């Protein structure tokens, strides 16, 4: 997956989890939770969807790395480079 | 606390398979409109069900729907509608003095079943089991979702009482108002049962699931050809207040809840018992200081099972057999069995009789079962009567729980 594809994939997951949120102007360097209504249970849904859709297990210690869109791309790049 | 406080209904919020407001529901009950349709459920395939089509987004966001349960959503819709109907100044009302009491048949089966299915799609990897499972399946979920949605900080819980739960939710509200625990009760019952395949399969496997080529004819209480229950979803929540409070704010009063009774068969897991049912009806009459002949209308539980209907008819004959002007009807022919909602919802469908003296019929009776030939049964067409002052509402459930509610027309 390219960085853009990973970015789009994350936004697709977030759109399912926060269906009322406007995702058109997300700043990729600012925490998602500061831009849209997203609580800890929602964040766990992102982790769950990565597990279900891409078999990626994110250890709890790494959760903070997924707090921004660019952080997600960075973290997931090695996991998804061959997909 | 004043145990003699009179408790009245000042608002109604409901969703039934054939109506999403009291007016629509009543109109369809008077015009023979059924809400039973074809329905496909997981594993089992094609069956029949009563399905509600209220707009959940009227009071919830899409995310709320994703996070919560269908029972929660039905409860939220009905509770908001009940408050709106009561014309109460909700914004300024002390939310810590409101209690939410929701009757349920069961809760958690839908979510658990969905999750087990989900697990099967991921090779039973338990890491794919949702973290939402617990808040969705705790027994207080439907009532708790109401408090989250409406910012109510008073008590909330559900009353688990199988198919008697709708009446029991109301009774809980009445009691808490009398005890002075709350100043307003949102009380009634809900059911999300059609979203779990298990209830269909269990009824089918015990020979108690209705089938008919025409879905609208499948639920046919008291008809000789009845062959079981149509499972339905639905909900009905009432705004209950002490009469003194309702009068103070000039509220519209639908009815006064004048008596209730609950007892147990103590005999069988599933089979009803006509003697205990008759005792429950008699107890409600006695507690209300009423004679059988004072009751103008009895809404029977009437699930459309061969055995259940006969049992209840025997109880009705025993108590009301000598009454010339007590009319009998039932509701499940229109909407199927809304389980935890049934008691509350079916009462709502009869409330307008206080105003128009018209009794909606029991429908789908092509050939009356001789064993169900109760006196003054209103069959297939509405009946105009001289007066309706008292309505008695039966609601019975598995494990032998019986509940009876008596409501009276409010006269100034």
Please describe what this structure looks like.
The complex is a heterodimer of chains A (83) and B (412). Chain A has 83 residues and is an all-alpha fold. Chain A has one domain (3-80): ACP-like (Non-ribosomal Peptide Synthetase Peptidyl Carrier Protein, Chain A). In chain A, 55% of the residues lie in helices and 0% in strands. Chain A has four helices and no strands. Chain A has helices at residues 3-17, 32-35, 40-54, 69-80. In chain A, helix 1 (3-17) crosses helix 3 (40-54) and helix 1 (3-17) packs across helix 4 (69-80). The longest helix of chain A has 15 residues, at 3-17. The termini of chain A are close together. The relative contact order of chain A is 0.20. The mean pLDDT of chain A is 96. In chain B, 33% of the residues lie in helices and 21% in strands. In chain B, the strands form three sheets. Chain B has a ten-stranded mixed sheet, sandwiched between helices. Chain B is α/β, with parallel strands linked by helices and 412 residues long. Chain B has helices at residues 22-30, 62-67, 70-86, 109-121, 133-137, 141-150, 165-179, 197-205, 243-248, 274-287, 306-320, 332-335, 342-351, 353-356, and strands at 7-15, 36-41, 45-50, 98-104, 156-160, 184-191, 234-242, 255-264, 297-300, 327-330, 358-359, 383-384, 390-397, 401-408. Chain B has two domains: 7-248, 3-Layer(aba) Sandwich (Peroxisomal Thiolase, Chain A, domain 1); 259-408, 3-Layer(aba) Sandwich (Peroxisomal Thiolase, Chain A, domain 1). The A-B interface holds A 17-20, 37, 41, 44-45, 48, 51-52, 57 and B 61-63, 66-67, 122, 127-128, 130-132.
């Amino acid at each position: 997956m390219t960085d853009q594809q990973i970015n789009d994939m994350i936004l697709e997951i977030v759109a399912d989890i926060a269906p009322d949120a406007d995702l058109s102007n997300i700043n990729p360097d600012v925490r998602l939770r500061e831009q849209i209504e997203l609580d800890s249970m929602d964040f766990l849904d992102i982790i769950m969807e990565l597990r279900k859709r891409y078999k990626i297990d994110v250890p709890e210690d790494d959760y903070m790395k997924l707090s921004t869109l660019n952080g997600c791309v960075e973290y997931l790049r090695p996991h998804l480079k061959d997909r | 606390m004043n145990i003699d406080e009179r408790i009245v209904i000042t608002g109604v919020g409901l969703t039934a398979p054939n109506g999403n407001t009291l007016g629509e529901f009543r109109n369809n009950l008077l015009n023979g409109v059924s809400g039973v349709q074809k329905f496909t459920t997981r594993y089992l395939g094609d069956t029949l069900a009563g399905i509600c089509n209220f707009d959940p987004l009227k009071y919830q966001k899409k995310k709320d729907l994703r996070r919560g349960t269908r029972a929660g959503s039905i409860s939220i819709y009905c509770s908001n509608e009940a408050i709106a109907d009561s014309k109460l100044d909700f914004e300024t009302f002390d939310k810590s003095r409101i209690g939410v009491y929701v009757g349920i048949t069961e809760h958690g089966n839908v979510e658990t079943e969905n999750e087990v299915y989900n697990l099967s799609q991921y090779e039973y990897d338990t890491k794919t089991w949702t973290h939402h499972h617990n808040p969705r399946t705790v027994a207080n979920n439907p009532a708790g979702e109401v408090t989250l949605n409406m910012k109510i900080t008073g008590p909330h819980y559900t009353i688990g009482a199988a198919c008697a739960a709708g009446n029991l939710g109301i009774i809980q509200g009445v009691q808490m108002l009398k005890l002075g625990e709350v100043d307003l009760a949102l009380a009634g019952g809900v059911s999300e049962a059609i979203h779990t395949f298990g209830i269909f399969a269990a009824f089918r496997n015990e020979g108690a699931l209705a089938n008919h080529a025409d879905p609208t004819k499948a639920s046919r209480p008291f008809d000789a050809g009845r062959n079981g229950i149509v499972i339905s979803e639905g909900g009905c929540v009432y705004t209950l207040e002490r009469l003194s409070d309702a009068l103070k704010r000039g509220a519209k009063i639908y009815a006064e809840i004048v008596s209730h009774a609950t007892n147990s068969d103590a005999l069988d897991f599933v089979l009803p018992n006509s003697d205990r049912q008759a005792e429950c009806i008699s107890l409600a009459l006695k507690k209300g200081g009423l004679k059988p002949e004072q009751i103008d209308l009895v809404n029977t539980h009437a699930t459309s099972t061969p055995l259940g209907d006969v049992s209840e008819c025997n109880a009705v004959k025993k108590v009301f057999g000598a009454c010339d002007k007590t009319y009998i009807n039932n509701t499940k022919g229109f909407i199927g069995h809304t389980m935890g909602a049934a008691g509350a919802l079916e009462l709502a469908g009869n409330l307008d009789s206080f105003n128009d003296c018209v009794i909606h019929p029991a429908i789908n009776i092509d050939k009356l079962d001789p064993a169900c030939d109760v006196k003054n049964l209103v069959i297939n067409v509405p009946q105009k009567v001289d007066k309706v002052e008292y309505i008695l509402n039966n609601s019975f459930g598995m494990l032998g729980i019986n509940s009876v509610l008596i409501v009276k027309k409010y006269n100034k």
